[in-house]
Design brief:
Layout (H helix, E strand, L loop, with lengths): L2 H15 L4 H10 L1 H18 L2 H28 L4 H4 L17 H16 L1 H20 L5 H34 L12 H4 L7
Helix pairs in contact: 2-7, 3-4, 3-6, 3-7, 4-6, 4-8, 6-7, 6-8, 7-8
């Protein structure tokens, strides 16, 4: 038995022994993406309040990098075509099961990409995202949908794509955001100065 299988069975046995945790972990495994969306929104808000162009570039790239990582993961998963444990193994606890290939995990790719992207915005948000990503990775194994190697590869893949994309596209993003800042949509990037909105009194 491989180390990956041993870890999977250990977590699955833990799942069998903790039925009271099933609805909580299953809910997070399925809908934890909402938390990552909230963290991305917090990253944008933090960069906007700081009026920091560098942070804003990272904040804008974070969700884009996540989508790019997920898109790139599809052909990789199709090429590997790994059968999920919930389909391949018997006598295990299965709380959720998909029919698509399991390696790398889409949820873990998303979590890894968001974590790396937010780390570039603000390290505290990166830490929160990293904790959320670790819980997401664990939850996907806990419910029987993935092997540990699926989620580990997914987190690493998502983070690498996000960081590499940011390094490559950062100059282009800076120019695009600079142009947007000069339009009415610039309010989404930099808070408007209240003083500039106060009309000047006309001299008599």
């Amino acid at each position: 038995m491989t180390m990956d299988s041993r870890i999977f069975y250990a977590i699955n046995h833990f799942s069998r022994d903790t039925p009271w945790l099933h609805p909580i972990v299953s809910g997070y495994a399925a809908y934890g993406v909402v938390l990552f969306a909230a963290l991305l929104l917090a990253g944008w808000w933090s960069a906007r309040r700081a009026a920091d162009p560098v942070r804003m570039v990272a904040a804008v790239w974070a969700p884009v990098g996540m989508l790019v990582a997920l898109a790139l993961n599809q052909p990789v998963a199709a090429a590997v075509n790994e059968t999920r444990p919930c389909q391949a193994l018997h006598d295990i606890v299965v709380l959720h099961c998909n029919t698509d290939p399991g390696f790398p995990s889409d949820h873990a790719v998303m979590a890894g990409a968001v974590t790396a992207g937010l780390w570039l915005v603000r390290w505290r948000l990166g830490v929160l995202a990293a904790v959320a990503a670790a819980v997401m990775a664990f939850s996907r194994v806990y419910i029987g949908a993935h092997y540990p190697q699926d989620v580990l590869a997914g987190v690493v893949f998502g983070a690498v794509v996000s960081i590499a994309g940011y390094i490559l596209l950062r100059p282009l993003l800076r120019r695009v955001l600079a142009m947007i800042a000069a339009t009415p949509l610039g309010i989404l990037l930099v808070p408007r100065d209240p003083k500039s909105a106060v009309p000047q009194k006309r001299s008599a």
